[in-house]
Amino acid sequence: MKGRGPVERPAVSRRAVLGAGALAALGLGGSLAGCSPLIPDGGLRPDGTVRVSHYLTPSYTDLEPSIAQFAKNVDARLGEGTADVYGAGTLLNSDQTLNGLLRAVADVAMQTSSFVSTSFPILGAIELPFSGADYSTLKEAVSPHSDLRKTFNAEFAKKGVMSVGTIMCPTEWIYTVNRPVTKPEDIRGLRIRVSGHVEGAMLKALGAAPVALSSAEVYEALERGTVDGMVSYPGTVVSRSLQDVLRYATIGHFGAYTYDAYANLDWFNRVPQEVREAVHDSGRVFSVDGTKLAKDVQDDEYMPVFESSGIELIELDKSQTRQFRNATKWVEDWWRSKVGDDDLADRALEQVRNP
Description:
This protein is an alpha/beta fold. Helix content is 44%, strand content 15%. Strand 6 (191-194), helix 8 (197-205) and strand 7 (209-212) form a beta-alpha-beta unit.
């Protein structure tokens, strides 16, 4: 495959792919299954491509370029046009990603861990609030070939997927419209948007009401007062121009998540060795360079936006941090119950805190 020219695609049109992705027969809203009914013999698509899906828009300047680089690296190894990328949810939206991947609507799909940790509770090891691991430690914990990545992939394999790359996003903060949050009592009773169940558990521990909304819905919800605030990493705020409606940002380790490149495991095992190597190597670059880009963009682009927008940045002191840590201790016990295996939970937490 290496060195071939641009790919001709007469066999499958984009419209046909999108139509297939929307078919109810694919069962995209159902439970995860370890089968891939649409994977062709030999693994590759009829047009010789690797189909890549993600739901981010170009406004995510901290993450979207790493997806483009992943595709370029695959093309460099296998030939121009091999990576056929469907972005901005044109093939699979955030709710459809895993089921669509398992049903071979895509071969590789990018997804935020907070959206899939319900299916893979082990991911909560990096998502826990005030986990005892700072951002630098989290980066090392999810680096290529780390023990934690091996633990995660062993769990993913049980449901037919594997992670080929992981970007460690900066930690999550609490953002509010009308009330600054400096102690646990300040958030009690507020309706706060979340994107994952670990965030939801954290807010329940603080007495707030978690509200699940897609990032595309948050601006209007904040503007109308449907929600009082949100939990996210800073990239979501700037990428969705939410600094225009938010007034306060409480900086603390209220959670963390990764942005991952997942592959259909059945597909990965069927494709030729050179394809597996290309995907693995591209995933490694996605992990290392993508993590660096995410942090650089936050520091160099997003923080100046925060400062010029008028959002009040609230930095917790040690006493305040201790109050939030104590108030959210229950979340780890809750997470362990979701994992259902104390030895596995212990191993993952050790790999997070001491990579």
